[in-house]
Amino acid sequence: MPLRWDGTLEDLPDGYDGALVRSIEDHESGVAPTTFSFMAAAVGNDVTKRGLAGQVLTALSVRARSAGLAHVIAPLRPTLKHRYPTTPMKTFVRWTRPDGLSIDPWKRAHQRMGATILAPAARSMVISGTVGEWESWTDMVFPESGSYVVPDALSLVDINCETDTGTYIEEGLWTEHR
């Protein structure tokens, strides 16, 4: 997504949701973009570990630069973070392998491309729904209010049975490709 960003941490969008909203609002307001934000890139399980994700990200970066955009950023959703939903992103992001690279393969792919970690994106994605919707989305039952671990979520889902709401606030990780 193309969007306007002045290059400072203070001007980063909230994360995935914020980048999407800013891009649309900028476009509708006629604001010229300065930045390209990766929103999603995926490689099928049958072709992993071949460097394809890096090739896609590199090609997109080259296209963004040749279009005159000064920055290339990404609100990362680390691949393995769902295994540690109670661990804050600021802790998870420090975990490394013996070679000094991240334990997370998606963050590692960006590291290998020379990306710089900018900051956590505290509210990268916010998903709200009724308790019934959360039960149907997760194939779980939420018999009382509380915080729950749900499949593939990077953090906990807060369920409030009294107000019939469930809220998931996912923290991401802002990176910049130079």
The gist of it:
The chain is α+β, with helices and mostly antiparallel strands and 178 residues long. It is built from 5 helices and 7 strands, in the order βαβαβααβαβββ.
Explain what this protein looks like in three dimensions.
This protein is an alpha+beta fold and 178 residues long. Helix content is 28%, strand content 25%. The chain has a single domain (2-121, 172-177), classed as Aminopeptidase (3-Layer(aba) Sandwich). Strands 1, 2, 3, 4, 5, 6 and 7 form a 7-stranded mixed β-sheet that branches. The radius of gyration is 18 Å and the shape is globular. The relative contact order is 0.18. The mean pLDDT is 92.
The CATH architecture classification is: 3-Layer(aba) Sandwich
The main pleated sheet reads as: 7 strands, mixed
What does the overall shape look like?
Answer: globular
Kindly report the CATH topology.
Answer: Aminopeptidase
Number of domains: 1
Overall pLDDT level: 92
Number of helices: 5
> Would you identify the regions where 5 or more consecutive residues have pLDDT less than 50?
none
What is the succession of H and E elements? EHEHEHHEHEEE
How many angstroms does the end-to-end distance come to? 17 Å
Number of strands: 7
By CATH reckoning, the class would read Alpha Beta
Please indicate the percent range of residues in DSSP E strands (runs of 2 or more): 25-35%
The CATH superfamily turns out to be Gcn5-related N-acetyltransferase (GNAT)
Q: Helix fraction?
A: 25-40%
Assembly form of the protein: single chain
C-alpha Rg (nearest Å): 18 Å
**Estimated structural class:** alpha+beta
